[in-house]
Fold:
Amino acid sequence: MRSVVLYASASEWRDMIERADELIASPNFRALKSEGKTLAGFLDIRDTDSVFIKRVDIPSWSRGIYARIRGSRAARSLAGAAMLAARGFAHPEPLAAMDSYQFGAIRASYILSRALARADTLSRFALGPNEIKGRDVHRRKRISDTVAKEVRRLHDAGLYTHDLQETNIMVGEDDGGGFKVYFIDLEDFRQATTVSWDRRILNLVHLDRSIGRFLCRAARLDFLYAYLGGRPARAEARKIVAEVMASRTAIDQRKDSGALARNRAAFSAVGRIS
Structure:
């Protein structure tokens, strides 16, 4: 395969991204995600330092051609980082990016970024080891309010993402005793002149679906009000909640239909084999 380095902030990172597969196979790599076509984790490069590396494989030649036209994961990650940086949002700093080609199609995409050593995913940061920190209701609310306001600021700045869930938001303590929010999975970010209300609701619903496992209904409603800048009048609040619930129901139904179709296909395949 032929590899093309899309970006490298320094020669050290260019060398590292060009040796990505070798380094991922080394003992210095600690996998954080390994499912399907995606492999991601931390790479120890010095005694106390590490970087984050992600490889996304493209399973077919036709999809690789489409990725070349649309833009690879690495290229879209660089674009997402630029969007966030231009508007002052915290995110992992890209260090290098590369695509690998075979017969004119992209077959693998790599992104190397600086590890967020002082941050953790929203749920793990909020709950802490053995969920001890999660018992501090006031701390949890402060974190929730901070994230809600940052998501609102993101939308007001003309940015949104196709995959807003709690695992794609990282939080750390800042130097002033508050919290700092980082947006990750940079390839899913898009920009618009104005982020529509429907798209805002869609982002909020996707996030609500993922935080429901560690926030009760009242806390999730409080998150929505923090996003809105305060609780609106009763009639307006009921209208907004109804819109959010309708969007969530539609998403749940689509996912259930998709799961049912996949199960039917699997049973059909088993029947043909037997």
About this structure: The longest strand covers residues 105-114. The longest helix spans residues 234-273. DSSP finds nine helices and eleven strands in the chain.
